[in-house]
Amino acid sequence: MNNIRKSILIVCRKSPYGTSLAREAIDIALAAAAFDQPLSLLFAGDGVYQLKKEQNSEAIASKNHGKVLTALPLYGIDTLYVEDSALRLRGLATEDLLLPVQTLDGDSIKDLMASHQILINV
Amino acid sequence: MNFSLLVLGAPYSDQSVSTALRFAEAVTATGNSIYRIFFFHDGVNNGNALITPPQDENNIPAQWQQLAQHHGIDLVICIASALKRGVLDNVEADRYEQSGDNLADGFNISGLGQLIDASVYSDRLVTFGP
């Protein structure tokens, strides 16, 4: 694995709370970054809620997922894409998000997926 | 083509597990190969040796074991997911002073690096989950 590098796209589809899948997708991203693989994240569907500002998870005794995401740039993970229609359908705009992102329409998402060698869809 | 699978679903709870099993059988039946099956999230329960299904239902851990044995497939359970769900091999059971271990034969416990390794060394990684 030391010499081989493959571009990985992790598709984050789950809302931040309710299941642990959102957190676990980020764990995969951190592992990929630790092994120095070129990595992008796409937040799609309910996954866009993960990026929402002002999350407060104290009342449900969960870790604050927003805080986990704001640490991503420290690990060199700063290529973040968001499904534009998923944002708009949920009444959100990029100003409501914790981190700078690139929004993509459906055709661009198709191109994004095609341009990566590995998709991990959680 | 060389595939790896990422299995997220719990056996008997999530249809994605039997879909993953059928997919794996189809891959091996068509002259393709499987490099690794990585069990993550609730998927780690697929490696619980204490699973005791009723007689008229499939024994899912046994199905994974047979598949792996026939085709030389690496079955890896994520350690972080497994420990908190109570799936332990004898090494981890000793380390955490638990009363017993329950990892089914043919499965190995390892870290997320094995998923990244599988991504890098396979032509395709296919996710099965809720």
Q: Could you characterize what this model shows?
A:
The complex is a heterodimer of chains A (122) and B (130). By secondary structure, chain A is of the alpha/beta class. Helices cover 29% and strands 17% of the residues of chain A. Chain A is globular. The mean pLDDT of chain A is 95. Chain B has 5 helices and 5 strands; from the N terminus they run E-H-E-H-E-H-H-E-H-E. Chain B has a 5-stranded parallel sheet with strand order 4-3-2-1-5, with helices on both faces. In chain B, helix 1 (15-29) packs parallel to helix 2. The model of chain B has no long low-confidence stretch (mean pLDDT 97). Classes of the chains: A alpha/beta (122), B alpha/beta (130). The interface between A and B is medium-sized, with 21 and 19 residues.
SSE topology sketch:
The complex is a heterodimer of chains A (122) and B (130).
Chain A: E1 8-12, H1 21-34, E2 39-43, H2 65-70, E3 80-83, H3 84-89, E4 102-104, H4 106-114, E5 118-121
Parallel strand pairs in A: 1-2, 1-5, 2-3, 3-4
Chain B: E1 2-7, H1 15-29, E2 33-39, H2 60-71, E3 74-78, H3 79-84, H4 90-95, E4 107-110, H5 113-121, E5 124-128
Parallel strand pairs in B: 1-2, 1-5, 2-3, 3-4
